Amino acid sequence: xxxxxLPPTNDAITHAADLLRAGGLVAMPTETxxxxxxxxxxxxxxxxxxxxxxRPRFNxxxxxxxxxxxxxxxxxxRARALELVEAFWPGPLTLVVEVAEHATVSDLAxxxxxxxxxxxxxxxxxxxxxxxFGGPLVxxxxxxxGRISPTRAEHVAxxxxxxxxxxxxxxxxxxxxxxxxxxxRGDRPALLRPGSLDPAEIDRIWPGLIRPxxxxxxxxxxxxxxxxxxxxxxxxxxxxxxxxxxxxxxxxAGEATLNLSTSADLxxxxxxxxxxxxxxxxxxxxxxxxxxxxxxxxxxxxDRLTRAAKTA
Length: 312
Ligand code: AMP
Ligand code: MG
Description:
DHBP synthase, 15 strands, 18% strand, binds adenosine monophosphate, binds magnesium ion
């Protein structure tokens, strides 16, 4: 059944927030493109989102917030980062900051990173939904991976209608150009992704912008930051049984130190992946991981495990 497409009345916003609280997926207009929103704190909802998009790997997602208080509950903003917030929020600027100690954004939404990307969007419908929901929402573009980003509700309905719960129709989006992503953790701001906010504007508030392409020591693209998180423990993949002294991260029936999903459900496995890896990493030096089927979300799980095994 295809998701209903509703104009963004108060009732529709209330309904959308209820769906999100229940773990649902709601397409909403932002000032850039239509985003597919899910509760950032609900790893299972985030796993459903990755599955709906058919993402072959877990990229960290941007958590959208309604106000600064909500942002500061999730991330640690240094003085310079707050100046950028002051100057450009709400708007197409995403800030990468350190994750706050009591943050609720799930490990899966952050792809296991110790950092977090936050943005306050400037679209009335996105803002009302965030305010009504009362917590951070991840919202990557509402299209299947590899397809063109949707700028109208009809695009979302055609491409993803059967996979999601509701589409809020806010009319055509203004631009289609994504947000500018700045890493605001260091002594100088670093441009991780050019976008619709001109970097010269950033420089005006916080001089010394680093462009990672021009700096061989910095990551070349946001995706490469994924390599910054890898377990200390040595990973052995596709292991049907653990060796002596190894922890066993299982999948499906059978004995295991921890099990990604005893019922061999890939969405449940994705939900548990980062938390369980982290937990085993704290207790063991060597982790054997059960074979994970390479279809559906399994492809993203295997991509992540392969990289974690390489860098360990
Ligand atoms: P989008 O697909 O527009 O939601 O954008 C997600 C982008 O944000 C991806 O390019 C990610 O690599 C980037 N991103 C999200 N979280 C982080 C993070 N913690 N550090 C660096 N980049 C991030
Ligand atoms: Mg996209």
